[in-house]
Specification:
This protein is of the alpha+beta class. Strands 1, 2, 3, 4, 5, 6, 7 and 15 form an eight-stranded mixed beta sheet that branches.
Amino acid sequence: MQIVLAPSVEAFGAAEWNRLFPGEAEDWSYYRATERARMPGFQWRYIGVREQGQLRAAAPAFITPYPLDTTLKGSLRTVVGGLARAAPGLLRPRMLALGSPVGEVCHVGFAPDCGAHDKARLFGTILDACEAEAARRRVRLFAVKDLPDHDATAALHGTLLARGLRRQSGLATAALELPFADLDGYFASLSRATRRDLRRKWRVREQLRIERRSHLDGIREQVVGLYRQTLARADMRLEEIPAEWFENVLAGMSGRASCVCYWEGERLVAFNLVLEEGSRLIDKYIGMDYARARELNLYYVSWLENIRYAIERGLPVYQSGQGLAEEKRRMGCALQANSLWYRHRNRIVDRTMAIAERALGLREPALRRDCAA
């Protein structure tokens, strides 16, 4: 067995990496485009396990300072946020996490012939390699970010529990199946009230010019400005995407990544970066001019344009990412639960965190298979 831990996905061949992630849009090219964007505050790691020379398992990872109030809400988040400002070293530890800050979920890939036992064994090897790297880098917090809770990852949960990691619910991933001939078919699948609401919002597109682009030439600063408007309104965020990331993804995933632009006259009022891969269209990032967003129904026009395009392309699934779960459920999506698994590497601090979680009701020991069930 050979363990490879590298700062670049280029330590692996594109074909051997992608073999472990069949049909995945966020593939070798996606991760290479991401690391070349040099996102501030992030160091990249890629872990692979070879047996008899063949890559058998792999996962991306990253190191970053992590504000512990990121996953909290309401008054508790305000209190913890105040403590973080008073003692930034305590409540903003460096974290090594499996997954990616720009990944839809935590991608852990295995050779096609791996059964449940092999997956658990190889995943344990990956976790051990991460623990060793965390020790070398004096990283305090170890985590697995956005691991799906569905049955395909069930073999991995026991491995995480055996290593003392605890679970908190993350944001669910929303996906809409598209067995429709056209947009009217989608409308017909909705409740009467939702159908009427979306048809009314869709009519506003007549005031817009919709353009699909493979580059940001001439609009780079406008796109970044719109993205930052949206980012400023986010309740929870781990990363801020630099302009280079958008450009790198569009260039590195030619034919599979697009920037959909929404123009009101000569004014760019919204953009949406989407990925296309075989079985689905993935909505990655959206930016809007909030001075015009409500009047022009920009979010809903973008939503419906993505569905229209996916149906036209014969893509059976529109994946609209995390956030706005109830609104997406109203519009027909199924929600797949994801979890953050983590532990502090200092046993005393970790035990204290576990006690605090129980006292504050933050732990959720039962794994939900599907939020839409």
